[in-house]
Design goal:
One of its GO terms (biological process) is proteolysis. It contains twelve helices and four strands; from the N terminus they run H-H-H-E-H-E-E-E-H-H-H-H-H-H-H-H. It starts with a helix and ends with a helix. By secondary structure, the protein is mainly alpha-helical. It has one domain.
């Protein structure tokens, strides 16, 4: 994860070099893009709940779910997040929020119908690990490079269409270079961000398994949810696909090896393999 962040930082330096070639309205566009990114991070919990049509529940409304999260938060020595439930048959869970003090953990009704108590606790421990690791903040920072590169590509393209430096013969090569650099940076940063996302999922699996001391419960939940995804109507899976980065298990997965480069989650086999190793380590300890 550190190596991935270092590479993203180097890309950021390259991007700053491209930005330094222009100013004025261009920088205004960059500031607007960063503002949108900040808003996405700041309101991530509300946006995620709204997208899944989830509602926050109190301890009186759902004492069992709150009791599980209370117990896990006490074990992890962390603030208790808000608790929400989404009434959908899609078996999944997610965590969002800009900090542990402003976080929310949401589970779907479909997940609760399918999992036993120990499996449910394993999934919740995974989501609480995302909160403790501040993964929403980490992924937002990591995506800055890609967002800026995408903005630069669009701004330079439209500027070349409607005038500006493109009217100057000497400016045309500069604009072409800026667009090329921004496009390459965008593509590479996208791959690195997805790689970082997969590492974060493995880190949450590990932390969650160690927290409960039951890696087998998390393995069981992963296997069960992944298998049941195939029974969910494709229309519902496609509707939920844009929120894969939040989910415990992605709504849609591509079996092709090349698609793994663009996946937000590691392959199921890799997650299960790691949990098997953790189980052996805990057994020795």
């Amino acid at each position: 994860m550190v190596a991935t962040m270092v590479l993203l930082a180097l890309l950021y330096v390259v991007l700053v070099g491209a930005i330094s070639l222009f100013s004025g309205i261009w920088l205004l566009g960059i500031l607007i893009g960063l503002g949108a990114l900040w808003a996405q991070w700041y309101f991530s919990d509300r946006l995620a709940l709204s997208a899944m049509r989830a509602r926050e529940v109190s301890p009186a409304e759902d004492p069992q779910l709150h009791a599980m999260i209370d117990r896990l938060c006490a074990l992890a020595d962390m603030p208790k997040p808000k608790v929400a439930v989404a009434d959908t048959d899609l078996p999944n869970a997610f965590a969002a929020g800009r900090s542990p003090d402003r976080a929310v953990v949401c589970v779907t009704s479909g997940l609760r119908r399918r999992l036993e108590e120990r499996e449910m606790e394993a999934v919740l421990s995974h989501e609480l690990s995302h909160v403790a690791h501040r993964d929403v903040l980490v992924m937002t920072i990591a995506s800055v490079v890609g967002v800026l590169a995408g903005l630069i590509t669009r701004i330079v393209f439209y500027s070349s269409l409607f005038g500006g430096r493109s009217r100057d013969n000497n400016g045309a090569p500069v604009i072409l270079i800026i667009m090329l650099v921004a496009a390459v940076v965008y593509f590479v940063s996208f791959l690195l961000t997805r790689l970082l996302s997969r590492y974060r999922e493995l880190a949450a699996d590990r932390a969650g398994a160690v927290l409960t001391g039951q890696p087998s419960a998390l393995s069981s939940a992963l296997t069960k949810i992944s298998g049941d995804m195939a029974r969910i109507p494709t229309k519902d899976l496609r509707a939920a696909e844009p929120y894969n980065a939040f989910f415990f298990v992605p709504a849609l997965t591509n079996k092709m090896d090349i698609a793994a480069l663009f996946a937000s989650h590691p392959k199921l086999e890799k997650r299960l393999e790691q949990l098997d190793k953790i189980s052996v380590q805990l057994g020795r300890e």
